[in-house]
């Protein structure tokens, strides 16, 4: 049975973590935010190239959710074919320390995992 997320976060300690994960959780949102943090402005197809395992539908859904939460901004240029760019909003930029911390932890985890595998092989 699926767990229903809180609608308000005036509960016990840890609800703020849940609130944050509701915004950036999932397989792709963190990666999208990281790419927009490092590249600053990306078009839809540029994101697709940077995330080769994501489907077009999933990318569209994740971008819509991030935009709906105010973390990214979408700018449509009136030309044919349409040109759409995505960037972090000022609010989205406030996640920079969180995204950098996740990357640093991931780098250490991968490096530590490689060392553990190497030690086990010896």
Describe the protein's architecture and organization.
- Residues 15-114 form the HTH hxlR-type domain.
- This protein is an alpha+beta fold.
- It has one domain (15-121): Winged helix-like DNA-binding domain superfamily/Winged helix DNA-binding domain (Arc Repressor Mutant, subunit A), CATH 1.10.10.10.
- The protein contains six helices and three strands.
- The protein has helices at residues 15-24, 29-39, 44-50, 56-68, 90-93, 96-121; strands at residues 41-43, 72-77, 83-88.
- The protein has a three-stranded antiparallel beta sheet with strand order 1-3-2.
- The model has no long low-confidence stretch (mean pLDDT 86).
Précis, in short:
The protein is α+β, with helices and mostly antiparallel strands and 122 residues long. It has a single domain, classed as Arc Repressor Mutant, subunit A (Orthogonal Bundle). It is built from six helices and three strands; from the N terminus they run H-H-E-H-H-E-E-H-H.
Report the biggest beta sheet as strand number plus sense, adding barrel if it closes.
3 strands, antiparallel
What gross morphology would you assign?
A: globular
The total number of structural domains is: 1
Bin the helical content.
Answer: 55-70%
Give the name of the CATH superfamily. Winged helix-like DNA-binding domain superfamily/Winged helix DNA-binding domain
CATH architecture: Orthogonal Bundle
Q: Tally of extended strands?
A: 3
Report the β-strand fraction as a percent range: 5-15%
The SS-based structural class is alpha+beta
| Sheet with most strands: strand arrangement | 1-3-2
Supply Rg: 17 Å
Keywords: DNA-binding, Transcription, Transcription regulation
Pfam families: HxlR (PF01638)
Domain HTH hxlR-type: 15-114
InterPro entries: HTH_HxlR, WH-like_DNA-bd_sf, WH_DNA-bd_sf
